[in-house]
Amino acid sequence: MAGSEAVQRATALIEQRLAQEEENEKLHGTAHQKLPMDMLVLENEKHQGAQSLALQKVKGQERVRKTSLDLRREIIDVGGIHNLIELRKKRKQKKREALVAPQEPPAEPEETTGPVDEETFLKASVEGKMKVIEKFLAGGGSPDACDQFRRTALHRASLEGHMEILEKLLDSGATVDFQDRLDCTAMHWACRGGHLEVVKLLQSRGADSNMRDKEGDSALHDAVRLNRYKIIKLLLLHGADMMTKNLAGKTPTDLVQLWQADTRSALEHPEAGSEQNGLEGAAGSRPATPQPVPAQ
């Protein structure tokens, strides 16, 4: 028998043996289980007499031993017990590797074939697929293309923090203060996502930090509500109005709870610095207010 055929045969035998071992383990387990009072076997005992569970167990073990012995002989015939040991080691190693192997996202194809429609373009802005964005724009697509909620690629990329895509969109003429159906701008979405660098980019492209959504909230209201105190400082340093009231009559300062010390300090003492990361929040702060999920 050829070497590869022998390995295949041995592997098949091992699979059978493992199945028999599992059956044996189950058999051991049932020996300690208490039979429920309504089992059919109890009804049958009235007419046929009780069957010894111990005897059934012995018979089952004898079948397993006989099958295992036959398998062992066959494995030795196709290459020796060494095959059994090595193949079982490989089997266990493959299982370990499968458990620890990182699940890497599929790489973006080098070239996107066919035309890119608006839905694919908007989805790419969330997933960070730059080549799809470039192809859509190169084909004459509008950087302000939006979905039924008037959410653009700029809104989506601002929430996700995809800086390269944002720069490409803005360089291609995307409207920096484009408002979605709830009147939210990219600045609102950047504050919700907690991306300080995105806020800086939007400010450098002329974004209005004081634009308000349909609830009267400015980007500063959102940043305060989510305890993004470094973003709060940045907004205040660039002219955000801390006295703007929303439709509920609340200013950003009103939204700050007494125990949100970092945020309150930022509002009262907006000094420069500490602008490396917008994802901060006090360790004991309350859970973030649920955010709208961009349509995809």
From TrEMBL:
GO terms for biological process: regulation of transcription by RNA polymerase II. It comes from the Eukaryota. GO terms for molecular function: RNA polymerase II-specific DNA-binding transcription factor binding. InterPro entries: Ankyrin_rpt, Ankyrin_rpt-contain_sf. Pfam families: Ank, Ank_2. The keyword Methyltransferase does not apply. One of its GO terms (cellular component) is nucleus. PROSITE patterns: ANK_REP_REGION, ANK_REPEAT. Residues 92-115, 266-296 are annotated as: Disordered. Keywords: ANK repeat, Repeat. ANK repeats lie at residues 149-181, 182-214, 215-247. This is Ankyrin repeat domain 2.
